[in-house]
């Protein structure tokens, strides 16, 4: 990597589950990170969690052995992103919120800086409508935990230019990540396949067909799913899953995307999964 790339930080917007995981991925690859959130308490929690994630990644041999972790800076000011090499937006899965954040960022960064929306299903071209330079926007879908999974779904919008694509692919190479580029659409590939399955798994529990443990055991033991759909849902965050499903349902009208009552009830009760300490499973302590 060139020295200027090492010195120029990658900005991550949003100190939630995905923002922290992406920040840990970048830091573990030896690049500096500026992490932005409006909530100072969330940033303080993120600093502690990211250190644990880096430790976990080292234990799993998921970090390049020849690189010193980058420096993390946290901020509540969007102006701190002005010199970023790239900006990865990882806020909640609401189109209006993402568009507002991306517009604010576009006003302070260089016109050549790639704006990368980490979305699980909102079409990139819809988000680009709000931007002064739609060519700057491209999508990624990092999987959780981002610091362990080396494949990234990349979504090129119809107005994304070659310089933005090159900027993102160069960054992913520096992160030791492989990219699969897909066409812009509702939910892309992974969410359109995965999220209805998670919805159905939750529905089976709600209908008392099987327990969460039994659903996951069958999917792991019989069908080769790595962790089971309901542990996966807890890892994603049940509120995030509901938001993503709702966005897909709104855009397609397909009933398989309509969040089931079991998921909605969990979210109403504050049982959001691993990050809250309880979802379909009890984790004891919130992240």
UniProtKB/TrEMBL annotation:
Transmembrane helix found in the keyword field: yes
Similarity comment text for this entry: Belongs to the 3-hydroxyacyl-CoA dehydrogenase family.
Positions bound to NAD(+): 14-19, 37, 93, 98, 120, 144, 275
Pathway participation: Lipid metabolism; butanoate metabolism
PANTHER family noted in UniProt: 3-HYDROXYACYL-COA DEHYDROGENASE FAMILY PROTEIN, 3-HYDROXYBUTYRYL-COA DEHYDROGENASE
UniProt site (Important for catalytic activity): 141
GO BP annotation list: fatty acid metabolic process
Gene3D superfamilies per UniProt: N-(1-d-carboxylethyl)-l-norvaline Dehydrogenase, domain 2, NAD(P)-binding Rossmann-like Domain
Coiled-coil boundaries: none
The name this protein goes by in its record: Methoxymalonate biosynthesis protein
GO MF entries: NAD+ binding; oxidoreductase activity, acting on the CH-OH group of donors, NAD or NADP as acceptor
Domain spans labelled 3-hydroxyacyl-CoA dehydrogenase C-terminal: 187-283
Keywords carried by this UniProt record: Membrane, NAD, Oxidoreductase, Transmembrane, Transmembrane helix
Transmembrane regions: 12-36
Ranges of residues in domain 3-hydroxyacyl-CoA dehydrogenase NAD binding: 10-184
């Amino acid at each position: 990597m060139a020295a200027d790339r090492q010195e120029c930080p990658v900005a991550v917007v949003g100190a939630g589950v995905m923002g922290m995981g992406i920040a840990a991925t970048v830091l573990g690859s030896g690049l500096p990170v500026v992490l932005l959130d409006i909530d100072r308490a969330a940033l303080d929690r993120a600093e502690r969690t990211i250190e644990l994630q880096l430790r976990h990644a080292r234990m799993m041999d998921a970090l390049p052995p020849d690189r010193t972790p980058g420096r993390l800076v946290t901020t509540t000011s969007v102006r701190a992103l002005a010199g970023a090499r790239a900006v990865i937006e990882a806020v909640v899965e609401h189109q209006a919120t993402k568009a507002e954040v991306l517009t604010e960022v576009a006003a302070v960064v260089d016109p050549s800086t790639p704006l990368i929306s980490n979305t699980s299903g909102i079409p990139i071209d819809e988000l680009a409508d709000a931007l002064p330079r739609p060519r700057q926007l491209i999508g990624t879908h990092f999987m959780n935990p981002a610091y362990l999974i080396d494949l990234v779904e990349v979504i090129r919008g119809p107005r994304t230019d070659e310089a933005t694509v090159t900027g993102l692919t160069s960054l992913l190479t520096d992160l030791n990540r492989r990219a699969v580029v897909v066409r812009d659409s509702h939910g892309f590939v992974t969410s359109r396949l995965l999220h209805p399955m998670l919805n159905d798994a939750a529905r089976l529990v709600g209908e008392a067909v099987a327990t969460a443990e039994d659903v996951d055991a069958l999917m792991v033991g019989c069908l080769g799913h790595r962790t089971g759909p309901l542990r996966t849902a807890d890892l994603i965050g049940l509120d995030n899953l509901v938001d993503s499903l709702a966005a897909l349902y709104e855009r397609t009208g397909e009933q398989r995307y309509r969040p089931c009552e079991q998921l909605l009830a969990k979210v109403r009760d504050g049982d959001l999964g691993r990050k809250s300490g309880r979802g379909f499973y009890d984790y004891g302590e919130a992240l």
